Amino acid sequence: MRKTYKALQVSASGELEILEKKVQLPSSKQVLIEVEVCGMCGADISDIDSAASSEVPRVPGHEVVGRITAKGEDVPNCWKIGQRVGVGRLAGYCHECMQCRKGQFHLCTNQLYVGATCEGGYAEMMLVLHTGLIAIPDELSSEEAAPILCAGLATFNALKKSSAQAGDSVAILGIGGLGHMAIQYARKMGFKVIAIGRGEHDVKDLRHLGAHLFIDASRADSIDQLKSAGGVQAIISTVPTASDVAPFLSALSPQGKVILLGAGKATLEISPGGLVGGERCVEGSFTGTPYESERALDFSVLFEVIPRVETTPMYLANEALAKLRAGKVNYRMVLIMCKELHADCS
User: With a threshold of 0.90, does the pTM exceed it?
Assistant: First the structure.
């Protein structure tokens, strides 16, 4: 086994710097992963900004795909050396807290968050608890699988929680990394899909993804357009700004749901009468368990729901991060790990 590996750690300036780290052997319940790729998520920006102002060094990244190279003595036999696995936002549940006892493993109170409160996947190697592992189907490339571990899982679970039935209208608010996955999943689940974005979008491309209708949220009549389309049974909101969500609540059908995925800090203003009178509901949805991740991956294989990705070698991570901050990524960015971070990964 190699003795050192390279990792991209957040510096005080917020830049990602290449460091040489010593390989640590896994504990009894951990596995050591040799990372192949790691997706770049919008949440990485806040993780990086937080790490830059903290005294605790951090390697970001929580859409990790790689292969098991070593495992602890208490890791179940279902996980094999050489097996391709994924790690999402959650670093593994404890089996001991009240939420785990209820079977709500994604809400484990002792769980660490990959790339935020523990080391992430912008590195050649990574340690993780076996309870955080996700099996990757052979039919998906590592580059395709990585974004599904976050953007795919979040939108897949939100649609399942929406209570919408096949044939119902579902609006996807926000057409980006999460939104383009939500559009595809919603279409394959049998919904009438209404994509809501701001400004100019390639309508033909949205239709190719699965949208039946596009509404420009920047237009003054956008709410009327949604109402004239018959309203919607569910709104899946991927935007972080509460003021962008609130106006569309009036187009929600009775007993409809708004599922919030964008974790903004601003207050969401809601009229109680609209909720009570039509038995409407607003709720949040927070990622999912490794099992649910595998369900999302399997669904993606069965119905060819594939993320649109740009790839870049990890030694160009700072350029990729700047592009992500500027909102210029074509849906999702995936960093390709190299044996040598300074080498050409092509």
Answer: yes
